Amino acid sequence: MIDPKDIVYLAIGLALFGLSSIPLACGKRFISVPTMYVAAGALLALTPFAVPMPDPLDGYLSLRVVEHATELIVIIALAAAGLAVDRQAGGAEWQHSWALLGLTMPLTIIGIYVLGTWTGLSVGAALLLAASLAPTDPVLARSVAVEGPNEGDEDDVRVSLTTEAGLNDGLAFPFVWLAIGVAEFAGDGLFDSLAGVAQDWLLMDVLWRIAAAVGIGWCIGLLSGKFVTSKYGDMENDGENAGLVFLGTTFLAYGVTEAAEGYGFLAVFIAARAGRANTRGTENDDYVRKPHVFGDQAEKVLLGILLVWLGTFAASGVLEGLTWREVALALAVVFMLRPVAGYLSLLCTRGTHFQRLAIAFFGIRGMGSFFYVAFGLATAESGAFGDPEPIWRITVITVLISIVVHGALAPLAMARVDRERASQKTPATS
Asked: Highest taxon of the source (predicted)?
């Protein structure tokens, strides 16, 4: 008789080995590696060899397992994204990112909230769903992200989506906390609940938590960068411990910030940017490749496992009660709310029509959404959000649609972006 443990090792081994094909597969049209992994997980769940996977609807312990598993991959992805971008932050250099953060994200949250109440969700549950589905995912957005540090001239599309994912996964947290506060306050409607929690939310969840994340993240990243390049740091070992440096800096920034009740996600990205700034333009700049490679590999390991989990979770029956309104909401997020809000926000930014359209459209949803839903449900008082099943159903179907659609179209879109950039650089001939 086959031991289920052996199936687990077999599935994980195949998943990890298959990830080595990502660079080749991502260059092929309409081939989405994440889609294949989700499908494999779903097929595995329907076979006699199905193995137990954490189901966040099974109880508090399983909910926490999903929360912390998705938390870990988001942390790793944010740190890798922070190291990957060569372009320094600034008003002009990151103009698309600021527009996406300042306009697109709030508009998307409002739109999802309205549609969430239309599907029958409570005020608090609709806010939690909106906060969870609004951010561009730093994990699954890798297909439209910059390749890595010192890879040459960067285009606006990849830089914008990478930096947006790095920043908005931290900035979504104020709205998750707002959802928790509103759900627990249980006032008469949205505005009554907002009035009851507004002061504490603004002072603590917006001002303090963001300020703590930026301050702590920058200090830890700067100090870590200085130590690494000192005579006692990893530079003296030719980068042999780059993986330890990556994990040490990332976890330190996250842990200290969370202990100070700041936003750890935002701090991790800021720490990576501060560490990168410490070496940029110096003889030590090539070192950043080594910790980034480690972070990229660690992210792939976690991604392969979590995509298989998503497939099994989706096939386990969570979608059985799916309604047409919930499907309509998911489709609206992918095809209407994010693209329209994004394009309107980018009207006054530089770039071609297609480049702005690509930035607006590829707001990929993924593992970060699962984390926020799990965190909100686990942190709020029991039953504050009502029945959690509709929240999970909508989140799962939205992420699945995003994985399939964005995964298939990303190679085509990025190829056109590259062609446009190449044609702009080619001098006209008479």
From this structure: Bacteria
Question: 162, 129, 392, 28: which is closest to 36 by C-alpha?
Answer: 28
CB 301 within 8 A of CB 72: no
What CA–CA distance (Å, rounded) separates 236 from 228? 8
- Does the residue 34 lie in any domain? yes
Give Cα separations from 393 to 132, 182, 186, 314, 389 (angstroms).
13, 22, 23, 9, 6
Rounded distance between C-alpha atoms, residue 32 and residue 413, angstroms:
14
Joined tokens for residue 367: 């593992």
Specify the length of the chain in residues.
430
- Total of domains in the chain: 1
- Over residues 105-136, the pLDDT tens digits come to 999 999 999 999 999 999 999 999 999 999 99
Using CA atoms, how far residue 412 sits from 30, 33, 77, 88, 151, in Å, is 8, 15, 23, 27, 21
CA distance 226 to 279: 9
Per the domain annotation, does 430 fall within a domain? Answer: no
- With b meaning 16 or more CB within 10 Å and e meaning fewer, what string describes 333-366? bbeebbbbbbbebbeebebeeebbbbbbbbbbbb
* 47 close to 57: Cβ distance less than 8 angstroms: no
pLDDT of 22-31, one tens digit each? Answer: 555 555 555 6
Measured in Å, how far apart are the chain's first and last C-alpha atoms?
75
Question: From CA 87, how far away is CA 129, in angstroms rounded?
Answer: 33
Written as one letter, the residue type at 18 is: G
- Does 256 reside within a domain? yes
Which residues in the chain come in under a pLDDT of 70?
Answer: 1-4, 19-31, 49, 425-430
| Residue ranges making up the domain that contains 210 | 4-422
Q: Is residue 428 part of a domain?
A: no
